[in-house]
Structures are given as structure tokens and as C-alpha cells.
Amino acid sequence: MVELSGEQVIRSNCRGCHGGCGVLVHVKDGRIIKLEGDPEVPSNRGTMCSKGLAYLQLVYHPDRVKYPIKRSGKKGEGKWQRISWDEALDTIVNKYKEIIRKYGPEAIVIGQGTGRDYAETLYRFANLLGTPNVITAGHMCYVSRLGATLITCGALPVCDYDGHPKCVMVWGNNVVWTHADEYKAENLSRVLAEGARLIVIDPRLTYLAGRADIWLQLRPGTDTALALGIANVIIGEGLYDKEFVEKYTHGWDKFVERVQEYPLDKVEKITWVPAAKIKDAARLYAKTKPACIQWGVAIEQTINCTDNNRILTDLMAITGNLDAPGGNVFFTPPPLRTLSQFAMHRELSAEQREKQLGGNTYKLAQRVALVTPKMVWDAILTGKPYPVKAVQLHGSNPVITRANAREVYKALKQVDFLVVADFFLTPTAELADVVLPAATWLEVNYLGGYFLRHGYLFPRKKIVQIGECWQDQKIFNELGKRLGQKNWFDKVEDAWDYILEPTGLTWEKAKEMPYIRGETEYRKYEKKGFSTPTKKVELYSTMFEEWGYDPLPRYREIPESPVSKPEMAKEYPYILTTGARCPVFFHSEHRMIPWLREIHPDPIVEIHPQTAEKHGIKDGDWVFIESPRGRIKQRAKLTTGIDPRVVAAQHGWWFPEVKTPDHGWDKSNINILTDNDPAGYDVAMGSTNLRVLLCKIYLAEEEPE
Questions:
Q1: pLDDT tens digits, 682-700
Q2: HEC sequence for 527-564
Q3: How far is CA 319 from CA 231, 234, 241, in A?
Q4: Which long-range contacts (CB under 8 A, 24 or more apart) does 654-662 make?
């Protein structure tokens, strides 16, 4: 921990969302008084978003969980008793030993939320415990991107903004409002100010869509068809990089045949995007050198998840923009011990790996070591294929963030033993048997960005101690030791020394550095090919062929749409798209921060004025949104920036100010409406279709309780 005296400015790195922004932390008399951007860190160059600027209100929030607590009544009653860390850890360890003895380690599920900076330690704990069952947001967010690009080109290609792209295609991403994994808004804004052309694919008129040279306003969920249409233009007009295609791609002829199945008249009918605009976008992207594609999670939360990611990677490849300056690059991290090495994946036996829930169904998910959550809820509720008896969640609020929220709530209320580590008593934490007080990024020593693919490490220094809060890595470390697991550390900083060892740095040296960056090298494939079975970009996937999936990307109609469910659409006539980003919240986080709730007090549903008029809805009215699964309330915002056939609702809503234990979890929670029927899952990854469904809307005469 930093020694504090008088007034100081301490360098650290934010994790108010996915993290990566350099921060100057102003401290006076041992208390943080201000946060501001660090101009010396190239990821954000001194800029900061509202979430980061307001974070000190989270650190010192009076409702934070500051000590371990255990349930003293029935689940969900809100009765808690403070306990010591020794009692908390011993309670967990004794329960796990009992479960392992009776049911095996696979009966314990370990989970985390999105963008957490302890994935390597969580997986180390799970692997040494012997459970193959880890749930994250990854099946429908980012890790699905990693998996799809792994089998297509061997690694995740990231926009090279330092290489000054002359054209940027932003696909399903609103980076000026939210941090999109490797990216920050400052870098995109900088290249646009330099004159780069901008193409935006989004159903909503975002700031970037309004700023774009070309905005393709597609029907929600039809991204794969649109990308195949763009590929059709590029190939049909000979705009592809012929030398790269000939030397470095596998399956070109079959890929061309598949692309020819998507002529622009067909694509226009599917996507609602005029054929002329598709041509314009394809020509601008293919002819402007260099060009990059920045994609976001929106395309990954549908039945087309893997093929969305594959076809966008294919577009980068066939235009010669893959691992090229200013294109999409495979950034090289500093020479660290890899996440896979630290996670000790090889310690999980083949026998245990075969027991992974859903593993034989979703082979790509199995390849990247995660489970579709629906498989866990089913195992809890039915005991099949075997019972799940314990769940341990870190930084995750699945009652709010996972599809079919009522089923999630039922499962977590029913599971024999639930452990939650978090900052607050969320609706999920309220169902736990033991709640552990987690530390924020201002209370930890850590190597930020270790999991991401931008080539950076961002050291974070522990600046303050709040109550008895522990960083999550320490929780895993101490639980592992008490369970008798080998290969843990005396203290967590020893783990960072272990990771850093190949660089020649120690934690003590690294923590004083604003960032550590690997060496950037372009066109590495010219020396060693691509890390795929054929050593080429696999437009035709040999891995998918082996697994029995379609080796080529194709479009699948969304399982609940006017096209696939015309009878349902008579009662539920609007396409509901969910997950619209907000600049002040990160999924279900931050709704208790006063500055941020002042900016955005209520959940918002965007409706076109023509649509609102049909239902007697005015701007600011509370509106019921209903699907076949249930209904919720959000406040109407009328906008012409959305198609009249589409309604866009926000996700992540609960109400910390509601002091009953449920915190109003089912009042405005969009996942009351979403479905988690596996028939609508991505076939290889098991990605849940969160983004696109059918709904009806009508005026709510009374406000939410």
C-alpha cells in the first residue's frame, strides 16, 4: 500500500468499466479527493469518462459491504450477520470439501462478470479445485470474439489507431459512451480529427452514426447478412487484395460461393439497408488504405455470434488490412507468463474437462473454457446431467444481467450454497449464504489489462484500505491455500512478480511505471503464417468442419422476429433491441453513485414519435414493455433516430435506493423479457440471444413502486 502523508498525486489506472485509462489520484490526509486523467498514458491521453471521474463516490459509499457477512435468515430476507474473514473462509472451505466428497468438484461452479481483472486467478482456482464449470459473460461478450478469431486467424485483431487508419468501420459499438475492451474513445476521436472516413453500422442514431460518412441503419440482429453483402460487393467488383488472398487464405473458392448466396437485393430485404448504401460502404472500406473494423458486443449476443465475428475477420483479411499498419493488428504483449500458464489449465484433467456442462454441445465454448449459464441453472433446478450444489460469483449480478431473469433468480435462490464477492448487496448478493467484501481498483495492487489484447499492461497501486475489503485475487489465493491446493503465493504481489519475471521486472519496479507495452510488429504472418491448422486465414474453417459445424459463415434468422415468428408478431409487433449503452453506467454497476444517478435517474426506452403516437405515449411517460415472458416499465424517450418498427430499451437496471432486499430487481430489468431457450443460441459458442426479440408497448398509468 502507498505510504500517504500530506497531499499527494499518485498514478494508477482506472477500472470503472473494462479499465485501461491512466489516472492521477489526488490524496489528502489519507483520503482520495479527486480523480483526473493522466496525459502520459496513450490509451486515454488525459481524458476521463463520467464513470471514472465519479468513482471516489463508490469507494466511500456508505452502503458498501466492508466486512464478510453471512445469511442469518431465509434466502432473500435481507438478514445478515457480520463475521470474520477466518469464519467466512472456513465456512466456504468446509462446504466445498463436503460437496467434493459427495458429488465431485464439478458440482461447484465458479463465475465472474464482464471485464473483471482477475480471470487468470479465478481460472487457476477453478482448475486446481477440479471443476470444469466456469461461467462468465464471455460466451456472449469478447471471449466469443477471442474464440471465433482463434479458429479463423489465430488471434484477436485489434484496431491500430497508432497506425493512422484512413477509414474506420465501427460495427455495433458506441465507444464514445462506453469502453469497448481494448479501445478508448480518445483514439478513435483522434484519427477522425486527422481526417479518417467513418462508417457506422447501428440500428440507432448514436453520436458516431450522426458523425459518420456512411451510416447503415440495419434491422437489429441481421449483421451477418449485411457483412456477407459487403463481402459480395468487394469480391464482385474485384476490390479484394488478390496477393494476400492467394498466399494467405484457405477456402477462397468455397467462401466466394457462400458470399454469392447474398446478392444485394436479398441482403436489402433481410437488413432493411438500401443496396446502394451497402455498395457505398463496401467500396469506401475496401478502397481506403489502411482501414480497420472496430466491433462491439452487440453483434455477439445473438444466434449469429460466432459467424458475425468470423465474417468481420474475413473482411479484414480479404482487403489486406489484417496485421497491417493502420488495420486490425495482432498486438504483442510484453514478454510475460501467459494467462493460460498462470491459470494452469493443464492441471484440469481430461476426465474433468469432459464433465463440463454443455461442453459436448458448444465445442467452441469448451475450447475457451467456459460454460453457457443456462446449463448451470438447469443443473441446479433439475439435477441433470448432475447436480450443481454450490456457486461462487465474483463481480457478477446475473439476476440482472442474464437472460430469463426469473429463472436465474429461482436457480440462485434454490442452490444449496451461494458465495458472492462484490462491493454492494446487489439483487444477486441478497440471495447468497456468504458475501465477501471486494476491493475496488483503488484498493489493489495489480497488472491491469493482463487479459486484453492491446499489448499493454497498466499497473495499479493500492492507495486506500476500506474496512476489511480484499481484492478478489487474495480471496482465491487464501481459499486455495486452505483447500490444500499447491502453487499459491504468500501474498498476491508475489503472483505479479511471477507473471513479470520473463520481462526482467518485479512488481516493485513495474508499479512505478505508467504502462508497459510490448513491441509492435506488423505482418508477422510473412515469417510464420497464422496460428491456425492450415497456417492461413481460414475463410473455410477446418476446425468447424472437424466439429460438425458449417465451415463457412452464414446468416441465421433471429429466432424471435417478424420473419421467424409472424404469428407472434401480430400480438408483439415491435422488434425490441436491448443493451443500449449509457455513458454513466457499466452494465448493472454504478446506479448507487449520486453524481451518475443525477445525470441518468431512470431507465430509458427509445421509441419513434410515430410509434409513440399510436399508443398515446408522450416523451417522459412511463411505458410498459411486454414480451411473452413478462413485462417491465421504463421511461419513454421519443427519437427519430430509430426505425418506427423498433424499440430500444436499456439493460442493467435495479434500484439500490429501494431498501427492501429485492431492490426492485424485476421492475425495469430488461432480462425479465429475454429468453434463454437453447434453440436460440449460437451453435458453437452457446451465446444467448439477448439483443433482439419481439415486444408490445403501452402506457403505464402509475409510476414504478
A1: 999 999 999 999 999 999 9
A2: HHCCCCCCCCEECCCHHHHHHCCCCCCCCCCCCCCCCC
A3: 10, 8, 5
A4: 654/397, 654/400, 654/426, 654/427, 654/588, 654/591, 655/591, 656/63, 656/424, 656/591, 656/592, 657/592, 660/78, 661/76, 661/77, 661/78, 661/425, 661/430, 662/76, 662/427, 662/430
- DSSP 8-state secondary structure symbol assigned to residue 586: B
3-state secondary structure of 65: coil
pTM, two decimals, is: 0.96
Contact at 8 Å (CB) between 133 and 518? no
Query: What pLDDT, in 10s, does the model give residues 301-344?
Result: 999 999 999 999 999 999 999 999 999 999 999 999 999 999 99
Q: What are 680's three cell numbers? A: 436460440
Nearest to 173 by CA among 292, 303, 282, 330: 292
Q: Rounded distance, CA 302 to CA 65, Å?
A: 35
368 contacts: CB under 8 Å, gap ≥ 6: 138, 143, 146, 147, 150
Return the axis-axis angle of helices 472-482 and 119-129, rounded to nearest 10°. Answer: 20
Per-residue buried b or exposed e for 227-251, using 16+ beta carbons within 10 Å of the residue's own CB: bbbbbbbbbbeebbbeebbeebbbb
Domains in the chain (CATH in brackets) are 69-137+343-441+468-489 (3.40.50.740), 153-332+523-547 (3.40.228.10), 566-699 (2.40.40.20)
C-alpha distances in angstroms, 331 versus 164, 187, 584? 15, 16, 29
**Bridge partners, 391 (sequence order):** 109, 418
* Single-letter amino acid, residue 634: Q
Residue 681 identity: Y
CA distance 419 to 413: 12
Angle of helix 264-271 relative to helix 275-287, nearest 10 degrees, comes to: 110
Place of cell 491446493: 485
Q: What DSSP character marks residue 678?
A: G
CA atoms of 144 and 460, how far apart (whole Å):
27
Phi, psi for residue 118 in degrees, rounded to 5: -135, 25
**Measured CA angle at 289 (ends 286, 291), to 5 deg:** 70
The runs of H, that is alpha helices, within 70-180 are 85-103, 119-129, 143-152
> What is d(CA 409, CA 428) in angstroms, rounded to the nearest whole number?
8
Determine phi and psi for 61, rounding to 5 degrees.
Answer: -65, 135
> What are the cell numbers at 571?
400480438
Q: Over the stretch 588-620, which tens digit does the pLDDT of each residue have?
A: 999 999 999 999 999 999 999 999 999 999 999
Dig out the grid coordinates for 553 from the structure. 459463415
Helices marked H in 23-108 — which ranges? 50-53, 55-59, 85-103
Supply 684's cell numbers: 458453437
Q: Coil, helix or strand for 571?
A: helix
Identify whether the C-beta of residue 493 lies closer than 8 Å to the C-beta of residue 445: yes
